[in-house]
Specification:
The complex is a heterotrimer of chains A (340), B (814) and C (201).
Chain A: E1 12-14, H1 19-29, E2 33-36, H2 40-47, E3 55-58, E4 68-71, E5 74-78, H3 83-88, H4 90-95, H5 97-104, H6 109-114, H7 117-122, H8 128-131, H9 172-178, E6 182-186, E7 192-196, H10 197-200, E8 219-225, E9 233-239, E10 250-258, E11 264-272, E12 279-280, H11 282-288, H12 295-305, H13 318-331
Parallel strand pairs in A: 1-3, 2-3
Antiparallel strand pairs in A: 4-5, 5-8, 6-7, 6-8, 9-10, 10-11, 11-12
Chain B: H1 15-20, E1 35-41, E2 47-53, H2 55-58, E3 63-68, E4 92-98, H3 101-109, E5 112-117, H4 124-128, E6 141-142, E7 158-159, E8 183-187, H5 190-195, E9 199-207, E10 220-225, E11 228-232, H6 238-249, E12 256-259, H7 278-287, E13 291-293, H8 297-303, E14 309-318, E15 324-334, H9 343-355, E16 360-367, H10 382-400, H11 404-411, E17 418-419, E18 430-431, H12 437-448, H13 450-456, E19 460-461, E20 464-476, E21 483-488, E22 494-498, H14 507-518, E23 526-530, H15 548-575, E24 582-585, E25 588-591, E26 594-600, H16 601-611, H17 626-635, E27 640-645, E28 655-667, E29 672-683, H18 690-709, E30 715-716, E31 721-722, H19 727-730, E32 743-746, H20 764-781, H21 793-802
Parallel strand pairs in B: 1-13, 11-12, 15-16, 22-23, 29-32
Antiparallel strand pairs in B: 1-4, 2-5, 3-4, 6-7, 6-16, 8-16, 9-14, 10-11, 10-13, 14-15, 17-18, 19-20, 20-28, 21-22, 21-27, 24-25, 25-26, 28-29, 30-31
Helix pairs in contact in B: 9-10, 10-20, 11-12, 14-15, 15-16, 18-20
Chain C: H1 2-15, E1 24-25, E2 45-50, E3 53-58, H2 65-72, E4 91-94, E5 97-100, E6 113-115, H3 129-137, H4 146-159, H5 165-171, H6 182-200
Parallel strand pairs in C: 2-6
Antiparallel strand pairs in C: 2-3, 4-5, 4-6
The chains are: A alpha+beta (340), B alpha+beta (814), C alpha+beta (201).
């Protein structure tokens, strides 16, 4: 409960035109620096007057961070490419429709016109206690307000909780994990490292104040989609209350290659909305290999998926919801034929 | 003859301003030297301000004034714009005026407020438990209203009410405890009704609270000039808000100049304006400069009003054929931190009306909690009654094997149906002016293809199950006794003064079409004057509770008839004969049988000015409201004045009805409900403006649909803080949550008790949409899956998964 | 005020569900306010292209486009409904793309072509086809959301001139209406698409 919010506190604004310049600014301002991509997550923090950076570094003027380009047998997408640009890209539509579906499920058209792929995967959690500025574990305190007997935690985690029970809100994150995307990171010292999408996200056990592996001064510059999963059988579903501008209660994304005999040759599968980071379900992937993509396989795999789930007071539904979405990713959804 | 305007679509004169962005709402006004204000909101749900130190803030460059509750007049214990005893988290404690918002916000961060925490409670049942906290120092519930009715004039006393542990014995099983009520009425043989019933059901339902969230928040801008207050504020009633502002500021209404040509929605939250709007008025006086107060969406979540949530328990007896034999209704209403509100009473009366039980008892307690203040929200009460009772009717129909439309049809009121207790002066029950619900059900069932849809309901394809639902949304639909002023001026045009708020219903303009029809005036010769108390407006009903179309078509009919009579009198005076020898038409008053002998309206207007007296407003009727008299005085001598109070008789209480039909598809693997199709059919009297009327039916239904599906307000009970302060938390309906085409229709049967035949329409579709969708979900997945709304995916999925209802049965604000 | 919030919450924890009677103090904790200046930062005086006109404006670093339009350029047709990128009332076009102007820093669109609701009609007052359709179909009620819806629709129709009702609904789904006859809004904007096609052929 804020005593006062709005408007944004004053800050210095920088609009560098190269990654090097941006990182120089980040070095100069250190903890006082704030990286601005599309800004949809950032402006909440700033307008709520909870985060008060000294300097905001706007990445929108850096050409090398934008655009979709071919790379080997796959694609490289600049981190500052908007979700709309991703969705409209011919190769994405043709070969990586999983990412298209996920990006299209994000927020609203205007947000997709401005929000970037890099920003979408790097955004902070929407736990309403944390976002209201309450001094919880994630904010550097020593309590989780969402995990008490009275907390209203319908949207919170059922897996991987460690003091904090917030979930990752990104729609594209599970799709990128399913596509085995690689995240290209320019470190503060200028060095580049490439991290698998599933390792890009961190849970509270590893770092309770961060959602990703990005350290201060690091920039996510690009996301690479390998050719290995292009054109696979994809499944994406996001269950949410409202059909626009709502975060996932649970989402699932998968890529599957089925052999001539109908058996699953290989599969990658990830869920989001259930833990502080999107979860790749490797055990499920292993289990389904060689089995037919049918109800029986789906049922066994889905039960494995939810092993260890620990619901809170108001989110027990996420266990069957995650189970059923995993099932659907494996065996698909029957079309209906109602008259209208 | 000009074409009759009533019942025809037209282009309201404000539309071009709206589509070009020229329409100015309160926050669109600017003034030289305008300051900005920010509010300091209470972080605690209940506290006492012990000390405020604003010295550091006042020392900042650019800070012009600080306003606290000490600067405001006492309002007899009622809610004020600022407080020294915040009773909900988010209640404004003080306001700062500064040269810009940033400075004001930073000033607030430098103010020290020493708060003493006080006990608080957010759930009404917690407050009723033995030893439970009281939301206010004075008590935890509103007593029965004092004689003289409800409203600000006669506040009920706050009392302390605690129930016994025995009362709560069944609470854990999801049954609403029914301890000592504070209000009740009954009629008929309740015990006999239950004894003779073939089926008796007893169910509890939790109807949620939601913030009104009009698109325009309650921003306001104010300045003073020559002792008068000029205030740009957002209101549903220009005429009635002026007096409220005057009262809140402590000044004469005639010195308040309220400007509100455009209101960005209200839905009951801006009925008589907003008490917060006086903050810029006081700050402006203190700082001697115009002050703009932009209310943020987050602030609107706290101070912007919300629907009363109700936990209701309905015990209903049914005969074998589905006829209701008895209804025993208990309601625990949550009024938030202020009040009292009467939604629970309206709910009881509505239940009695639309289900027509031969015997009924209504009991209620009206609890206060430390949650944001409530006000009437579109269908206040009847909509909640739909939520509490519809699932029971649905369940009974299923158990008795009766069709869902038929069970509602057989129990619905007809004609001048009686309802409520025998509370009339002679011990008689109230009755409605008219009701044609059975026709609406029949027409709707045919248009919706009910039988075909019913046939596939309950069938499963893959993980999807379809369900159909129907519900009747009722609501009081019109008041009486308001005033009208209009003038025909020497330019030959008709000027109609309208005190109605321009909140998008178009009734602000529609009412003038009644006058134009009576006077046979072409529409392009009619000017409607609205939106500014400086423009001399008549005493007008508030545009709340579906009142306006009924009340103001009556008033304007009366005013137009007065105008017509005066035209006839002037003609007779100048041209001989008696007034009754004269007729009107073609913008002339002429001798019947000799159309050449007459006066044009323009000539008559000039003659009226020459004659003076009652003809040009020098003399006005005794029975009109003082505000109307004051306005008439300013319009004297401009032309022929028609001025009258609506004194038309009315036998009965005016109610309108909308029948909602919904088909949904529930995905039982996700719990998610999708609305497939919707139809609303109105029994709302004569149609004045068809396109606008159907928009009311569809829009109101959508509000109910959102309540059925996901809209809510969430409060953390431990800290007493609202969590749903963002749209993606509170979840107002989006365009993708309804089908790309929705349907609406109206019977267009005139109400016999009002001269134009029109009743109001704004409220009844809300309960229709709410009930129809709840019923459709129940039809698809079983009526025992949920006993609270909204029926979100988690509720459906968890219940189906466990084979029984799993949700928290009684907790509010989840 | 973060200290205050923390104190309050801690106080509640210490005292149980019912707050203790012990008082505690709120104390502001805001940093120094005002504009800092640092080398390499953007200039405050910027040139904007709004509705075809070039405007020189003094813009704060943290200023949003909506505030610049409404409070510096007098273009109050762009409404603020939530100021949090959730309702769409503030939608304007930047280089033909619908954006939430409440969540765009003005400095980031210096080079862009900005069009607001005031910039749709022709200089002679003739309404844009989508505006005309909204008038003809009486598309909106209170109309506070109208400018944002119209701008979103105009932007969307630049990418799909012949949408189905469902497609157009998706295109304008980033806009909220609380009067909520979305059916009529959609009908009026479909009519707008039709007028637009007619006007450009």
């Amino acid at each position: 409960m804020a005593v006062i919010r709005d408007p944004m506190p004053a800050f210095e604004l920088f609009q560098p035109t190269s990654v090097e310049d941006a990182q120089a600014l980040l070095r100069r301002y250190g903890a006082g620096a704030w990286v601005l991509a599309g800004g949809l997550d950032s402006f909440d923090w700033l307008k709520d007057r909870i985060k008060r950076p000294e300097a905001v570094v706007d990445l929108s003027g850096i050409p090398e961070l934008r655009g979709v380009r071919a790379r080997g047998d796959g694609l490289e997408i600049g981190a500052m490419t908007t979700l709309t640009e991703v969705v409209r890209h011919g190769v994405v539509r043709e070969r990586y429709a999983l990412l298209l579906d996920a990006a299209e499920a994000a927020a609203s058209p205007q947000i997709r016109n401005q929000g970037t792929l890099g920003g979408n995967v790097s955004q902070d959690t929407r736990c309403w206690y944390y976002r209201a500025g309450w001094p919880c574990y994630r904010a550097g305190g020593n309590i989780c307000y969402a995990d008490t007997p009275e907390s209203i935690n319908r949207e919170h985690a059922i897996l991987g909780a460690d003091r904090c029970v917030a979930v990752n809100p990104s729609d594209t994150a599970p799709a990128l994990i399913a596509l085995d995307a690689q995240m290209v990171i320019r470190a503060a010292n200028g060095g580049e490292r490439v991290v698998a999408a599933e390792d890009y996200f961190v849970g509270p056990g590893k770092d309770i104040t961060r959602m990703t592996v990005l350290q201060p001064g690091d920039l996510l510059t690009a996301i690479r989609l390998p050719g290995a999963w292009a054109g696979a059988r994809f499944y994406f579903e996001k269950v949410r209350d409202r059909q626009v501008w709502d975060f996932a209660l649970v989402s699932v994304a998968s890529a599957m290659v089925v052999g001539a005999g109908g058996a699953i040759e290989r599969m990658r599968l990830a869920v989001n909305g259930v833990a502080a980071r999107p979860l790749r379900l490797q055990a499920v992937e292993d289990l389904v290999r060689g089995r037919p993509a049918n109800e029986a396989t789906a049922a066994v795999a889905a039960n494995l998926a939810i092993a260890g789930a620990q619901p809170l007071r108001f989110n027990a539904y996420k266990v069957p919801l995650m189970r059923n979405l995993v099932k659907r990713a494996i065996r698909g959804v029957e079309a209906t034929t109602w008259a209208s | 003859m000009a074409e009759r305007l009533i019942g025809r679509n037209y282009t309201p004169p404000d539309l071009v301003a709206k589509v070009t962005g020229r329409a100015r709402y309160a926050e669109d006004f600017r003034a030289d030297g305008m300051l900005f204000t920010k509010l300091l909101l209470s972080p605690m749900p209940h506290a006492r301000v012990r000390r405020i130190d604003a010295s550091a803030a006042l020392a900042m460059p650019g800070v012009k004034a600080v306003l606290t509750a000490d600067d405001l007049p006492d309002l007899g214990g009622g809610e004020r714009a600022l407080t020294n005893e915040p009773v909900y988290a988010g209640e404004p404690i003080l306001a700062v005026a500064a040269v810009d918002e940033l400075t004001a916000a930073e000033a607030i961060e430098r103010i020290e407020v020493d708060l003493e925490p006080l006990p608080f409670v957010t759930d009404p049942l917690d407050s009723l438990r033995p030893g439970g906290p009281n939301a206010r120092l004075e008590g935890n519930a509103w007593g029965a209203p004092l004689p003289g009715g409800q409203g600000p004039g006669a506040p009920a006393p706050l009392v302390t009410l605690k129930w016994t542990p025995q009362d709560f014995a069944e609470a854990d099983m999801g049954r609403l405890p029914m301890g000592k009520p504070l209000e009740e009425w009954a009629y008929g043989d309740l015990d006999g009704g239950f004894a003779g019933a073939a089926l008796v059901l007893d169910e509890t339902f939790v109807v949620q609270s939601t913030c009104h969230h009009p698109m325009e928040t309650r921003s306001a801008m104010a300045y003073w000039q020559n002792g008068k207050l000029f205030i740009h504020a957002s209101t549903q009633s220009v005429a009635q808000t002026r007096g409220n502002i005057a009262r809140w500021v402590g000044m004469s209404p005639s010195d308040v100049m309220l400007i509100c040509e455009y209101t960005g929605g209200g839905f009951g939250s801006k009925g008589g304006g907003a008490v917060s709007s006086v903050i810029p008025a006081f700050l402006s006086r203190k700082a001697n400069a115009p002050v703009m107060m932009r209310i943020t969406r987050e602030e609107e979540s706290y101070i912007g009003r919300a629907r009363t949530n109700m936990t209701g328990r309905a015990r209903i007896g049914f005969a074998k054929d589905g006829r209701i034999t008895a209804l025993d209704l208990y309601i625990v209403q949550d009024c938030g931190a202020y009040g009292p509100l009467g939604d629970h009473r309206s709910a009881g009366l509505a239940a009695s009306l639309i289900y027509q039980p031969p015997a009924m008892r209504w009991r209620a307690v009206n609890v206060i909690t430390n949650t944001p203040p409530r006000s009437q929200q579109r269908s206040p009460g009847p909509m909640q009654a739909n939520g509490i009772i519809e699932p029971v009717i649905t369940k009974a129909a299923r158990q008795l094997g009766v069709d869902q439309v038929q069970i509602r049809r057989m129990n619905s009121p007809e004609g001048k149906a009686a309802f409520g207790p025998a509370a009339g002066p002679g011990g008689q029950r109230a009755h409605v002016t008219s009701a044609f619900i059975k026709q609406a059900l029949d027409r709707g069932a045919a248009q919706f293809d009910w039988e075909a849809r019913k046939a596939r309901a309950g069938q499963r394809q893959g993980s999807k199950i379809r369900g159909v639902g129907v519900a009747v949304g009722p609501h009081g639909a019109g008041s009486i006794g308001f005033d009208s002023i209009m003038t025909i001026r020497p330019d030959g045009r008709l000027y109609v003064q309208s005190g109605v708020g321009n909140l998008g219903t178009h009734s602000v303009i529609d009412l003038a079409r009644v006058a134009a029809d009576v006077l046979d005036m072409p529409w392009d010769k009619v000017e409607v004057i609205w939106g500014d108390t400086g423009k001399h407006l008549p005493w007008t009903c508030m545009s709340v509770g579906s009142q306006t179309t009924h009340a103001m078509t009556r008033a304007n009919h009366a005013g137009a008839m007065d105008t017509r009579r005066k035209l006839q009198e002037i003609a007779a005076r100048d041209l001989g004969g008696s007034p009754d020898d004269y007729d009107i038409g073609g913008e002339r008053v002429y001798r019947r049988g000799a159309p050449g002998r007459g006066l044009s309206y323009a000539q008559a207007a000039r003659r009226a000015i020459e004659l003076g007296g009652k003809y040009d407003g020098h003399a006005v009727p005794e029975d009109i409201n003082p505000m109307t008299k004051e306005s008439a005085a300013s319009l004297v001598g401009l032309g022929l004045m028609g001025i009258a109070k609506d004194n038309y008789p009315r036998d009965g209480v005016t109610y309108s009805f909308v029948v909602g039909f919904a088909e949904v598809e529930v995905d039982i693997e996700t719990g998610k409900t999708t609305l497939i199709d919707y139809l609303g059919v109105g029994d709302v009297g004569t149609v004045i403006n068809p396109r606008s009327l159907l928009a009311q039916i569809k829009g109101g239904s959508c509000l109910g649909i959102a309540h059925a599906l996901f809209q809510k307000a969430v409060v953390d009970p431990r800290y007493g803080v609202t969590l749903g302060d963002r749209f993606h938390y509170s979840k107002p309906l989006s365009i993708l949550d309804v089908p790309a085409s929705m349907k609406a229709d109206a019977l267009d049967i005139a109400d016999p008790e009002t001269p134009v035949g029109a009743r109001g329409v704004g409220e009844p579709p809300v309960g229709a949409g709410y009930g129809a969708v709840l019923n459709a979900i129940a039809d698809a997945v079983g009526e025992d899956v949920f006993r609270r709304a909204p029926v979100t995916a988690d509720i459906v999925l968890t219940s189906l998964e466990n084979g029984r209802r799993m949700h928290d049965p009684l907790r509010a604000h989840v | 005020m973060s200290y205050s919030r923390r104190n309050f919450i801690k106080g509640v924890i210490a005292g149980g569900a019912v707050a203790t009677s012990a008082g505690y103090l709120f104390r502001g904790s805001g940093p120094l306010f005002g504009q800092t200046s640092a080398p390499g930062s953007v200039e405050r005086l910027v040139t904007l292209n709004v509705n075809g006109q070039t405007r020189r404006v003094d813009v704060l670093k943290q200023e949003t486009l909506a505030m610049t339009l409404r409070y510096k350029l007098g273009l109050t047709g762009t409404k603020l409904g939530c100021d949090r990128a959730e309702c769409g009332a503030c939608t304007v076009l930047v280089d033909d793309v619908p954006r939430y102007s409440c969540s765009v820093l003005t400095h980031t669109v210096r080079g862009g072509r900005i069009v607001t609701i005031e910039g749709l009609a022709r200089a002679n007052g003739a309404l844009h086809p989508v505006q005309q359709a909204v008038v003809d179909e009486q598309g909106f009620q209170c109309a506070f959301c109208l400018p944002g819806f119209v701008m979103a629709a105009v932007g969307f129709l630049k990418t799909n001139a012949t949408p189905t009702r469902e497609q157009l609904a998706h295109g304008i789904s980033g806009n909220l209406c609380r009067c909520q006859d979305y059916d009529k809004i959609l009908t009026s904007l479909m009519r707008g698409a039709e007028y637009l096609r007619r006007s450009t052929t």
